[in-house]
């Protein structure tokens, strides 16, 4: 890993492959926006990609381009033959160093994002997690959605885009990653001649994306829906915490389950056994959404309207068991699942490139898989109990729900399920 004179970080992984995955990752997103420009990072991504996609030469060279904007980062990626890797890097660099915004492209992308927003609103799972952030981080930038409100979208123009680019797309917030057959020296040379000339702005008004957690509940009742979509979570540390891997293991203890699976009462997870032998839910998924300094850790499930209270009770019961009576065999099983998840993150050029970029963006370094495995080997039932007691036991949860939620317990009752009265 090297750093250009202006602060851009460059990391490469050279392997014997005819392909190369090149990514440009910027620390931007809805967390670094305000109420007036919420959604502009996503809008810039759409307009920028529309310009790159118009390059006929990219299609002729067989280059596959991808982009993503989240609450905390924006990523532009290209998978191509090694000889074209530097061309992709130059195209991505031009997004920041030499933006060419066309009024017709801007209006076209507004209409496209409107259609995407409609599709997004029709996805109950996406809405639940948006509501979860809104109630967990209310009145802070982390509560804002990536797409942003339609009123902001209609007002965006070249001035707003250039202003946000100048303030937020700073060199020290940019990471360039290459994984594949391209050499480190070639990537360094191309980066130095393109994005290396990006000046360091003295603007001091960058939104640092502060956060504040609030235990609360948000419910959108719609009895016309066949099932309720619910997420229950607690506040936990983010990627930079020493408890990150322990929380990942704890997340694997409950696993995930859906109605299409067999096994009935032979599942390893008690929650999966309870769900498969009854009508508690149609599926449940554990999640851990880590940001740089905070995270949300919990369970998302789709449940029958008549059994929501029982499902929530079962989830909290398992959480309390994790705090008090977890056993060694369960921890070993969860560690093996966590190892598999970590291995999948670097499986192939694309996944390895994405994982490397995020590690460098968050921590300015990269841990190898063997280092992560060594840290996981130190996790024990005592460690799990300590971390779960620290972040779960008697803590205020956040709840987001959509659908027929009549039997969903009141927040005070859910809060009282976060501890056991013991002698």
From TrEMBL:
GO terms for cellular component: mitochondrion. Pfam families: Peptidase_M16, Peptidase_M16_C. Residues 160-336 form the Peptidase M16 C-terminal domain. Residues 23-149 form the Peptidase M16 N-terminal domain. The keyword Zinc applies. Its cofactor is Zn(2+). Keywords: Hydrolase, Metal-binding, Metalloprotease, Mitochondrion, Protease, Zinc. It is found in: Mitochondrion. The keyword Protease applies. One of its GO terms (biological process) is protein processing involved in protein targeting to mitochondrion. One of its GO terms (molecular function) is metal ion binding. InterPro entries: Metalloenz_LuxS/M16 (IPR011249), MPP/UQCRC_Complex (IPR050361), Pept_M16_N (IPR011765), Peptidase_M16_C (IPR007863). This is Mitochondrial processing peptidase beta subunit. It comes from Euphydryas editha (Edith's checkerspot).
């Amino acid at each position: 890993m090297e750093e250009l004179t202006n602060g851009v970080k460059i990391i490469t992984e050279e392997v014997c492959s005819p392909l190369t995955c090149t990514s440009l990752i910027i620390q931007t997103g809805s967390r670094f926006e305000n109420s007036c420009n919420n959604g502009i990072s996503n809008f810039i991504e759409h307009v920028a990609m529309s310009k790159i996609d118009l390059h006929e030469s990219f299609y002729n060279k067989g280059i596959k381009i991808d982009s993503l904007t989240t609450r905390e980062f924006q990523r532009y990626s290209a998978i191509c033959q090694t000889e074209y890797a530097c061309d992709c890097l130059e195209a991505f660099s031009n997004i920041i160093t030499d933006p060419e915004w066309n009024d017709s492209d801007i209006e076209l992308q507004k209409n496209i994002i409107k259609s995407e927003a409609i599709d997004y609103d029709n996805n109950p799972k996406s809405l639940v997690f948006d509501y979860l952030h809104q109630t967990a981080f209310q009145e802070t930038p982390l509560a804002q959605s990536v797409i942003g409100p339609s009123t902001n979208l209609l007002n965006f123009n070249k001035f707003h885009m250039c202003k946000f680019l100048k303030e937020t797309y700073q060199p020290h917030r940019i990471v360039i990653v290459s994984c594949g057959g391209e050499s480190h020296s070639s990537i360094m040379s191309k980066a130095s001649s393109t994005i290396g000339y990006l000046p360091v702005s003295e603007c001091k008004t960058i939104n640092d994306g502060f956060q504040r957690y609030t235990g609360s509940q948000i419910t959108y009742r719609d009895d016309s829906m066949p099932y309720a979509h619910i997420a229950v979570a607690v506040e936990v540390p983010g990627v930079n915490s020493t408890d990150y891997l322990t929380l990942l293991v704890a997340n694997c203890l409950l696993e995930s389950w859906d109605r299409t699976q067999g096994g009935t009462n032979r599942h390893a997870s008690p929650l999966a056994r309870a769900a498969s032998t009854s009508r508690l839910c149609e599926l449940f998924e554990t999640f851990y959404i880590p940001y740089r300094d905070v995270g949300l850790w919990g369970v998302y499930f789709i449940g029958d309207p008549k059994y929501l209270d029982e499902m929530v009770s079962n989830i909290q019961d398992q959480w309390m068991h994790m705090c008090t009576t977890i056993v060694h065999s369960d921890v070993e099983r969860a560690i093996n699942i966590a190892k598999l998840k970590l291995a999948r993150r670097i499986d192939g050029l694309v996944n390895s490139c994405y994982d490397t970029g995020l590690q460098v963006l968050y921590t300015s370094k990269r841990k190898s898989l063997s280092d992560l495995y060594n840290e996981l080997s130190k996790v024990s039932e005592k460690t799990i109990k300590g971390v779960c007691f620290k972040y779960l036991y008697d803590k205020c949860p956040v709840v987001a729900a959509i659908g027929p939620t009549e039997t969903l317990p009141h927040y005070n009752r859910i809060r009282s399920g976060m501890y056991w009265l013991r002698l």
